[in-house]
């Protein structure tokens, strides 16, 4: 995607100096657009833990490059397995992280240690290229959904109103995004599209990142508080909900940013289609019951008790919003049962949120 006319991916390596992996510091957006230079395994792990880099597909891609960086120091079998396990443990819910590390190991284990560094960079690059292609395909399939809704509108109400939660745009992937890819394509195709952007407490990825992305691309949008979604649906102001996901089970349950489940309940109560966009790398074929089996990351209570932003002068600022001494809980994700999901939007097309639906697109996992 482009920022002020300049094309970027969300992670890149200068081929003339592969000792440095570059990402955008997502904790600084929208105040500033800072580029982080990661040169060690520990720097990559810290960027993932602190959410300087976030978004399930992007975490996987960056972790793959993190393993390549570690191999520059020690490419032995023991070191590679140790560093891979260290990176894989940085965040528990997003399956893409462990998928990418497992893929890297499968590719690298048979190789002589002297060949592993070059091979690691090449495989990480392929992971990135495939993510871009998958997300572009998701966008094309999702465009059909939006086009269908737009075609059914009559009279003066031509705007297609879409609600999304958290950030599943290009900054959360290598490029294009998942939930936002169809929206970008609809906008570029001339469809009158408007996006309701959930703020997404406690880290405000919607208010900060999704709004920033959409604004840079020229997509009309409005930021709303997390609890406004049901009200908007009750009054006919939402035509479609599209969200991303950090893990989808074999039977179609969806783990996504905390608050997604409540949006799905409201959508079901108001007959609003609720779609989940994902690359197939986000499907966990080993898990069936999402509520019982998907680990939910519990993050620092400081993310709840403190609000971070910029002051009137554009300087970073933090303020406490709870009484001193009040405890806070901070589950980062929730699970939306498959029965509340209208359909899944993948690089191979759309399907029901069921095991049969997923296997119709991915029969190799039968």
UniProtKB/TrEMBL annotation:
Gene Ontology molecular-function annotations: S-methyl-5-thioribose-1-phosphate isomerase activity
Gene Ontology biological-process entries: L-methionine salvage from methylthioadenosine
EC number: 5.3.1.23
Pathway: Amino-acid biosynthesis; L-methionine biosynthesis via salvage pathway; L-methionine from S-methyl-5-thio-alpha-D-ribose 1-phosphate: step 1/6
UniProt keyword annotations, A-Z: Amino-acid biosynthesis, Isomerase, Methionine biosynthesis
Residues the record lists as binding substrate: 54-56, 91, 205, 256-257
Catalytic activity: 5-(methylsulfanyl)-alpha-D-ribose 1-phosphate = 5-(methylsulfanyl)-D-ribulose 1-phosphate; 5-deoxy-alpha-D-ribose 1-phosphate = 5-deoxy-D-ribulose 1-phosphate
SUPFAM superfamilies (UniProt xref): NagB/RpiA/CoA transferase-like
InterPro entries cross-referenced by the UniProt entry: IF-2B-related, IF-M1Pi, IF_2B-like_C, Initiation_fac_2B_a/b/d, M1Pi_N, NagB/RpiA_transferase-like
Keyword Amino-acid biosynthesis listed: yes
Active-site residues, as the UniProt record annotates them: 246
Residues under site feature: Transition state stabilizer: 166
Pfam family for this entry, one: IF-2B
Keyword Cell cycle: no
Similarity comment: family membership: Belongs to the EIF-2B alpha/beta/delta subunits family. MtnA subfamily.
Record-linked HAMAP family: Salvage_MtnA
Function: Catalyzes the interconversion of methylthioribose-1-phosphate (MTR-1-P) into methylthioribulose-1-phosphate (MTRu-1-P). Also catalyzes the interconversion of 5-deoxyribose 1-phosphate and 5-deoxyribulose 1-phosphate. Part of a bifunctional DHAP-shunt salvage pathway for SAM by-products.
Full protein name: Methylthioribose-1-phosphate isomerase
Species for this entry: Ameyamaea chiangmaiensis
Lineage of the organism: Bacteria, Pseudomonadati, Pseudomonadota, Alphaproteobacteria, Acetobacterales
Gene for this chain: mtnA
């Amino acid at each position: 995607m482009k920022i002020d006319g300049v094309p970027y991916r969300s992670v890149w390596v200068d081929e003339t100096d592969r000792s440095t992996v570059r990402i955008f510091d997502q904790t600084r957006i929208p105040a500033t657009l800072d580029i982080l230079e990661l040169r060690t395994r520990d720097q990559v792990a810290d960027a993932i833990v602190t959410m300087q880099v976030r978004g399930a597909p992007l975490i996987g891609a960056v972790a793959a490059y993190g393993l390549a960086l570690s191999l520059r120091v020690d490419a032995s079998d023991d070191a590679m397995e140790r560093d891979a396990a260290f990176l894989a443990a940085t965040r528990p819910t997003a399956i893409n992280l462990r998928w990418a590390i497992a893929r890297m190991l499968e590719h690298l284990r048979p190789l002589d240690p002297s060949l592993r560094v070059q091979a690691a960079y090449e495989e990480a690059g392929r992971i990135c290229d495939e993510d871009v292609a998958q997300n572009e395909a998701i966008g094309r399939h999702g465009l059909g959904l939006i086009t269908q809704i737009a075609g059914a509108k009559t009279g003066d109400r031509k705007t297609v109103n879409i609600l999304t939660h958290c950030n599943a745009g290009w900054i959360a992937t290598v490029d294009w995004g998942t939930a936002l890819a169809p929206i970008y394509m609809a906008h570029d195709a001339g469809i009158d599209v408007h996006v309701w952007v959930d703020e997404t407490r406690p880290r405000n990825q919607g208010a900060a990142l999704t709004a920033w992305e959409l604004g840079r691309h020229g997509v009309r949008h409005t930021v709303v508080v997390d609890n406004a979604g049901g009200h908007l649906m009750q009054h006919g102001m939402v035509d479609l909900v599209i969200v991303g996901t950090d893990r989808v089970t074999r039977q179609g349950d969806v783990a996504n940013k905390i608050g997604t489940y409540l949006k799905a309940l409201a959508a079901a109560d108001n007959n609003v289609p609720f779609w989940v966009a994902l690359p197939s790398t986000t499907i966990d074929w080993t898990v069936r019951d999402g509520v019982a089996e998907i680990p939910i990351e519990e993050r620092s209570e400081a993310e709840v008790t403190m609000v971070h932003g910029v002051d009137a002068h554009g300087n970073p600022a933090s303020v406490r919003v709870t009484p001193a001494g009040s405890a806070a809980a901070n589950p980062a994700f929730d699970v939306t049962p498959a029965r509340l999901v209208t359909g899944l939007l993948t690089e191979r097309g759309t399907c029901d949120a069921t095991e049969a639906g997923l296997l119709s697109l991915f029969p190799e996992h039968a």
